[in-house]
Specification:
- The complex is a heterodimer of chains A (54) and B (142).
- By secondary structure, chain A is an all-alpha fold.
- Chain A is flat and about 30 Å long.
- Chain A starts with 14 loop residues before the first helix and ends in a 5-residue tail after the last helix.
- Chain B has 142 residues and is mostly helical.
- Chain B is 60% helix and 0% strand.
- In chain B, helix 3 crosses helix 5 and helix 4 crosses helix 5.
- The chains are: A mainly alpha (54), B mainly alpha (142).
- At the A-B interface, helix 1 of A face helix 2 and helix 5 of B.
């Protein structure tokens, strides 16, 4: 996880929550009915609308 | 009971939220594990978590949100600091000021601030989930 931006963020101050979040987030991206491209477009659109620099 | 989603039937002892999210059981299990950790590992005081969840529901005008504004009697308390940040988080996170963050940190530390913001992401996101999918609230309004 050395290069993991999430794992190296302030979220690491709460390791129990971080571990569970990463499971949920990983599942969201690796499985499901919605194809990966659509998820990525939605993620980028969300970041743009909320003016998130990440 | 059935919901507006034709594939979803709410079983005895189940909530609509359980039934709808249960369409993706793997995600639902992981969600429950994440959502519950704030209480089971006491990452923040349960009273603060419950109040912030209710305040998020109020700001988002979610079905089942309590009517009286969720407030703290003591404006210098941890609860007051967390509620102020919670409200701004939902309205516009860019409006969360350094003073708001500092006020929370003064009571619960850096790790507590992280726990609060993570919990708010869950409350805000899944209140929107419930609103968009027209999922009835649980008995506690969440």
């Amino acid at each position: 996880m050395a290069d993991d931006a999430i794992a190296n963020s302030p979220l690491a101050l709460q390791p129990e929550a971080l571990a569970r979040f990463l499971v949920l987030y990983g599942l969201l991206w690796s499985h499901g009915e919605v194809d990966h491209t659509a998820k990525e477009i939605a993620r980028l659109r969300n970041a743009r609308i909320t003016d998130c620099g990440y | 009971m059935t919901t507006w989603l034709p594939e979803v039937t709410v079983a005895e002892g189940q909530t609509e939220f359980d039934a709808v999210f249960g369409l993706r059981p793997d995600l639902f299990d992981a969600y429950r594990d994440f959502e519950s950790v704030f209480w089971t590992h006491e990452l923040l005081d349960a009273e603060i978590l419950d109040a912030c969840r209710a305040r998020c529901a109020q700001v988002l005008r979610a079905e089942g949100a309590p009517a009286p504004p969720i407030e703290s009697d003591d404006p210098t308390s941890a609860l007051a600091a967390c509620l102020e940040l919670a409200e701004q988080f939902v309205l516009d996170p860019h409006g969360v000021t350094e003073a708001m963050r500092d006020a929370v940190v003064a009571h619960v530390g850096d790790a507590g601030l992280v726990a609060l913001v993570e919990a708010l992401a869950v409350f805000d996101g899944f209140t929107r989930f419930r609103t968009i999918l027209r999922v009835a609230p649980r008995e506690d309004g969440a």
